[in-house]
């Protein structure tokens, strides 16, 4: 769908309007570092304008290689890259209106915060008054205008992350690339900055391309996610689509706890797996996926179990993890194990070795090929 055109958006005039010319289109991108080191194996991908788009996958899957190609830091061996209508496959990095926030932040220790934020503007030849004005406005937008005179070594990790973000935004790029910029932060700060990044992206209407290996981070922040594996894209979709309707077992496992089992047999009334039988009508497939949250855990002799019908799995607690708001149990059942999550409502915990019954909502069961 064609988006309406919009003017360049700066922090002080941001109106949450997506920029029409910032969609990214990748076709057949291939990159190898020697015969046995294929980083990108023919990637086709469309990144919508004005979206928060995440490249997700394990270490070595190709997500950072893909980000570097978009940035112009690496040139693919084959394929094309368009930003809007412009083919930038062979265009140098400094001639693309794209900025990158790196995992290490790459800030200049000999410059104060204002000097770091304004560095790119000076390199582009802007006059001092313009630089000072745009640095002040961007710093206020990122809420670090009180830090402009400080040295980098006087800042906390979260403050350095904000400086790196301000330095990237002050040049008003069409696309902002973020290479795991939150990975070095503690959990609490990381959670707060996730929300801040999302709010900034929404207000600017800018295209953000974010790299992470953390599926929880991807689900919280993204409009769309591309899951990569060995240089290929396994699936692209919204976080809900990838979690609830994964395309294959790799995506199912990577998007969270996956009780994923091969289907051993099937008939008109149900199917059989290693943990037992599921009654119901299921699509033809090779595997069945049961997310932890579609099961409830009960004592083996609880009244809820007797009235639950056919889809009850009996087993024993093998492990339990206390996660504050919830308990996570590993239950041995049949020839395998299942993970189940139980909301912590002060109801007490099941002991290791306790006999339990897992009651399942089969409407949440997903069948997969592959």
The rounded Rg comes to 25 Å
Assign the CATH topology of the largest domain.
Answer: Rossmann fold
The total count of strands amounts to 21
Beta fraction of the residues?
A: 25-35%
- The helicity comes to 10-25%
Q: What do the pLDDT scores average to?
A: 87
Spatial separation of the terminal alpha carbons:
32 Å
What's the architecture of the largest domain, going by CATH? 3-Layer(aba) Sandwich
GO molecular function: ABC-type transporter activity; ATP binding; ATP hydrolysis activity
Organism: Salinisphaera japonica YTM-1
Domain ABC transporter: 24-255
Protein name: ABC transporter
Mind sketching the topology for me?
Elements: E1 24-32, E2 38-47, E3 52-56, H1 63-71, E4 78-83, E5 86-87, E6 98-101, H2 113-123, H3 128-142, H4 157-169, E7 175-179, H5 187-204, E8 207-212, H6 215-221, E9 224-229, E10 232-237, H7 239-244, H8 249-254, E11 259-262, E12 265-267, E13 270-273, E14 276-279, E15 287-290, E16 295-299, H9 303-306, E17 312-322, E18 326-333, E19 336-343, E20 355-360, E21 366-368
Parallel strand pairs: 3-8, 3-9, 6-7, 7-8
Antiparallel strand pairs: 1-2, 1-4, 4-5, 9-10, 11-15, 12-13, 13-14, 15-21, 16-20, 17-18, 17-20, 18-19
Helix pairs in contact: 2-3, 2-4, 3-4
What does this structure look like?
The protein has nine helices and 21 strands. The longest helix has 18 residues, at 187-204. It is of the alpha+beta class and 370 residues long. It is elongated. The protein has helices at residues 63-71, 113-123, 128-142, 157-169, 187-204, 215-221, 239-244, 249-254, 303-306, and strands spanning 24-32, 38-47, 52-56, 78-83, 86-87, 98-101, 175-179, 207-212, 224-229, 232-237, 259-262, 265-267, 270-273, 276-279, 287-290, 295-299, 312-322, 326-333, 336-343, 355-360, 366-368. The protein has two domains: 24-249, 3-Layer(aba) Sandwich (Rossmann fold); 257-368, OB fold (Dihydrolipoamide Acetyltransferase, E2P). It has a six-stranded mixed beta sheet, sandwiched between helices. Helix 2 (113-123) runs parallel beside helix 4 (157-169). Helix content is 24%, strand content 32%. The chain starts with 23 loop residues before the first strand and ends with a strand. Strand 7 (175-179), helix 5 and strand 8 (207-212) form a beta-alpha-beta unit. Mean pLDDT is 87; it is low at 1-20.
């Amino acid at each position: 769908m064609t988006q309406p055109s919009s003017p360049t958006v700066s922090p002080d005039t941001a109106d949450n309007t997506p920029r029409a010319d910032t969609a990214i289109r990748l076709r057949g991108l291939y990159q190898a570092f020697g015969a046995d080191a294929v980083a990108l194996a023919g990637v086709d991908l469309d990144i919508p304008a004005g979206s928060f788009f995440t490249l997700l996958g394990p270490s070595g899957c190709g997500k950072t290689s893909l980000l570097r190609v978009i940035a112009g830091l690496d040139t693919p061996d084959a394929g094309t890259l368009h930003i809007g209508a412009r083919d930038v496959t062979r265009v140098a990095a400094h001639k693309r209106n794209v900025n990158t926030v790196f995992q290490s932040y790459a800030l200049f220790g000999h410059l104060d915060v204002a000097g770091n934020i304004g560095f790119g503007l000076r390199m582009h030849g802007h006059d001092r008054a313009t630089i000072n004005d745009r640095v002040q406005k961007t710093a206020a937008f990122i809420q670090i205008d009180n830090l402009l005179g400080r040295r980098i070594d006087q800042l906390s990790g979260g403050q350095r992350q904000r400086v790196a973000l301000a330095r990237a935004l002050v040049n008003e790029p069409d696309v902002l690339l973020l290479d795991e910029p939150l990975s070095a932060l503690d959990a609490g700060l990381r959670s707060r900055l996730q929300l801040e990044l999302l709010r900034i992206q929404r207000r600017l209407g800018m295209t953000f391309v974010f790299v992470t290996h953390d599926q929880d981070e991807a689900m919280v922040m993204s409009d769309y996610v591309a899951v990569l594996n060995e240089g290929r894209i396994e699936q692209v979709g919204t976080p809900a689509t990838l979690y609830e309707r994964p395309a294959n077992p790799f995506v199912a496992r990577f998007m969270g706890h996956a009780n994923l089992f091969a289907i051993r047999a099937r008939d008109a009334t149900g199917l059989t797996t290693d943990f037992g039988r599921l009654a119901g009508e299921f699509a033809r497939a090779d595997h069945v996926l049961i997310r932890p949250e579609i099961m409830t855990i009960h004592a083996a002799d609880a009244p809820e179990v007797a009235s639950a019908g056919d889809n009850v799995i009996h087993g024993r607690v093998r492990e339990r993890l206390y996660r504050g708001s919830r308990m996570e149990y590993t239950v041995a059942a049949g020839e395998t194990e299942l993970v189940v999550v139980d909301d912590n409502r002060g109801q007490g915990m099941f002991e290791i070795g306790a006999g339990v019954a897992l009651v399942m909502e089969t409407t949440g069961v997903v069948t997969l090929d592959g």
